[in-house]
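Q: Hi! First time doing this. I have a protein sequence and I read that you can turn it into a structure. Is that right? Here it is:
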Amino acid sequence: MLFYVSIIAFVALFLLLTYRYRAYLPVPDRLRTIISRFSREDYAPLSTFSDQAAAGMTSTTFDIEADNIFQGDARVGLDEQATQEVMEIMRRQNVTFDQARLIRHHRYLAANGVDPSGMPLDAKAVTRL
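A: Yes, that's right. Below is the predicted 3D structure, encoded as structure tokens:
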């Protein structure tokens, strides 16, 4: 009985250490891509401001080129998830970039219990003194 408990403890320790130091293990790239599908780390490299401006993610009110590219901004680019959401709204609803940003912003507010005017929807919220 004690033998089986020690084997289980050893296997559990091995799995925990393997998971903890998975970034340092020599794993082939093909296997690493398969493993990354099951990983909770949803990190993907962001595209650059130039790529996003070329994809139509710019307007007169949200000018990536003037504010970021021409000024030599060292940041990587816009948030990739938000960029994908805006592009999906633009494609599905056939709206401009600014309209798609507004639609996404209203959805974000609604998901957090805030109406489009900025007032909280919670009945217990204190909005005036």
